[in-house]
């Protein structure tokens, strides 16, 4: 079967307290910030949204099914490695990524200075040039849980193809 498919993903993680000193990981990159994110894995909210978009496009469910947060094997898991496994599942079925667009939702940290590093880190895992992986961010105008700085959300959209 040939064709193109689209998928979307969304994820949310709560910030730790500043005393916990958990590193903040976004798109597989450590980002300097006074707080990390709470999660069973490394809590990389942007990669989680991206994986859900990829699994969705391929009709393979969601990351909760593939990497259950009740499974001790995934405690502290490196989300970049989980993304590699998702890409393996897609490749087995003949799917390749065309492009991806990932959006971080929150007031802080600002990711502008880290945007290219994030693209350079994740694009090779997706098997695309870095210009085919867009990374962007928005605030919620200080409204809601992201506006109050309680956590971060991320959305992703991907297009995949097989020929
Ligand atoms: Zn997550």
UniProtKB/TrEMBL annotation:
A divalent metal cation binds at residues 11, 13, 48. Pathway: Isoprenoid biosynthesis; isopentenyl diphosphate biosynthesis via DXP pathway; isopentenyl diphosphate from 1-deoxy-D-xylulose 5-phosphate: step 4/6. Binds 1 divalent metal cation per subunit. The record marks 40, 139 as: Transition state stabilizer. It catalyses: 4-CDP-2-C-methyl-D-erythritol 2-phosphate = 2-C-methyl-D-erythritol 2,4-cyclic diphosphate + CMP. InterPro entries: MECDP_synthase (IPR003526), MECDP_synthase_sf (IPR036571). Its cofactor is a divalent metal cation. Residues 4-160 form the 2-C-methyl-D-erythritol 2,4-cyclodiphosphate synthase domain. 4-CDP-2-C-methyl-D-erythritol 2-phosphate binds at residues 11-13, 40-41, 62-64, 67-71, 138-141, 145, 148. Its EC number is 4.6.1.12. Coiled coil: none annotated. Keywords: Isoprene biosynthesis, Lyase, Metal-binding. Homotrimer. Involved in the biosynthesis of isopentenyl diphosphate (IPP) and dimethylallyl diphosphate (DMAPP), two major building blocks of isoprenoid compounds. Catalyzes the conversion of 4-diphosphocytidyl-2-C-methyl-D-erythritol 2-phosphate (CDP-ME2P) to 2-C-methyl-D-erythritol 2,4-cyclodiphosphate (ME-CPP) with a corresponding release of cytidine 5-monophosphate (CMP). Belongs to the IspF family. This is 2-C-methyl-D-erythritol 2,4-cyclodiphosphate synthase. It comes from Geothrix limicola. The gene is ispF.
């Amino acid at each position: 079967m040939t064709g193109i498919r689209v998928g979307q993903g969304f994820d949310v993680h709560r910030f730790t307290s500043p005393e916990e000193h958990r590193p903040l990981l976004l798109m597989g990159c450590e980002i300097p910030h006074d707080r990390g994110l709470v999660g069973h894995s490394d809590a990389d909210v942007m990669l989680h949204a991206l994986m859900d978009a990829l699994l969705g496009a391929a009709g393979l469910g969601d990351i909760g099914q593939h990497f259950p947060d009740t499974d001790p094997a995934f405690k502290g898991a490196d989300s970049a490695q989980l993304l590699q496994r998702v890409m393996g599942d897609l490749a087995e079925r003949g799917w390749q990524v065309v492009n991806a667009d990932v959006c971080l939702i929150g007031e802080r940290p600002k990711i502008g200075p880290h945007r290219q590093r994030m693209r350079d880190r994740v694009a090779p895992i997706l098997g695309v040039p870095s210009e085919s992986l867009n990374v962007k961010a928005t605030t919620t105008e200080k409204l809601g849980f992201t506006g109050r700085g309680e956590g971060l959300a991320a959305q992703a959209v991907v297009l995949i193809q097989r020929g």
